Amino acid sequence: MQDVLGIVGGFGGYATLDFFARVLKKFASESERGYPHIIMDNDFSMPSRTRALLTGEGYKEVVSAIASSMRILVHRRGTKARYIVLPCGTSHYFLPDVYQLVPEAEERVVHAVRLLGDDLRARGVKDVLVIAAEGTLYKHFYRDCLHDYGIRVSEPPEVEYQEIRYFIECVKTDAYPVELAERFCTFLQKYEEKDVVLGCTEFPVLMRHLMEREGMTPSDVYVWRGRRFHDPLTVVLDFLYKNMV
Known about the structure:
By secondary structure, the protein is an alpha/beta fold. The chain contains eleven helices and eight strands.
């Protein structure tokens, strides 16, 4: 029987849509029957993950919502997800608490940040800049996770959170002003690291938009204006293709 892929959505509509499209592209097939069986649960009523991390407001509700989606994917009558992906970097912070509610999901979750750590270490990357949602940065989630892989992480300070929020909102609203590329480039010039982790799943969407606007074709590691951009979901897609084909 074919393995089933479960996607926990609701974190960002366009990021989830983008991941679904990338699954189809990764598993490109002459027939639709060649694609994996995919179950997706989108709960757009989920409280703000960023607010939950910054202030604690709605934290339990976020955990409960993620757990509810996972129950649907794991206990669906007739067809259960073998692998579960959360196309949101911030959501991974809540996983230890989610597993307290749905322990049977832990062995099924494809942990994007851990897979990224393995990939960066295999590539010999030692130092990275992480750009992510402000709650994720505030909790130093990527820094703490990637430390286990011998990778030093730099993070934008709190004074930059508003600018980061602007870039993320461009993707969430599907609005890309003409000055966006230069504004993003100016932001990056404040940091010396040449390897950048796209810790929020809106950022890969942004990067591909900027590169395609300049006539560039993204590869596994995006190269743009002298920097390399590492997308955790690219590594997740590689894992799924290896294990589901």
